[in-house]
């Protein structure tokens, strides 16, 4: 009988911890999703602007492709760091 009450005590502590932690976790995940959606939209917008800029100027096609890919990847890395920081992962 003592073991059963001991298990119940551990379960109660786990439930209390979950209810205390869950709201903060939900807010972090939702804000990370928002950052992801907005960030991908901004990256797509910047790529289109860069593409229009390159169309107006007469640059080498290989240079255009390289710069667009490089900038897109660099921005996605920054976005990834922002998201994991929002989720609470230490980035240093």
UniProtKB/TrEMBL annotation:
One of its GO terms (cellular component) is membrane. Pfam families: MS_channel_1st_1 (PF05552). InterPro entries: MSC_TM_helix, MscS_channel_TM-2. Keywords: Membrane, Transmembrane, Transmembrane helix. SUPFAM superfamilies: Mechanosensitive channel protein MscS (YggB), transmembrane region. The chain crosses the membrane at residues 20-46, 66-89. The keyword Membrane applies. The keyword Membrane applies. This is Mechanosensitive ion channel inner membrane domain-containing protein. It comes from marine sediment metagenome.
């Amino acid at each position: 009988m003592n073991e059963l009450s001991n298990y119940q005590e551990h379960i109660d502590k786990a439930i209390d911890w979950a209810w205390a932690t869950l709201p903060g976790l939900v807010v972090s995940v939702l804000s990370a999703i928002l950052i992801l959606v907005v960030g991908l939209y901004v990256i797509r917008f910047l790529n289109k602007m860069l593409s229009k800029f390159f169309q107006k100027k007469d640059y080498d096609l290989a240079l255009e492709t390289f710069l667009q890919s490089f900038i897109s990847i660099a921005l996605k890395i920054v976005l990834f760091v922002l998201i994991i920081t929002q989720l609470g992962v230490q980035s240093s």
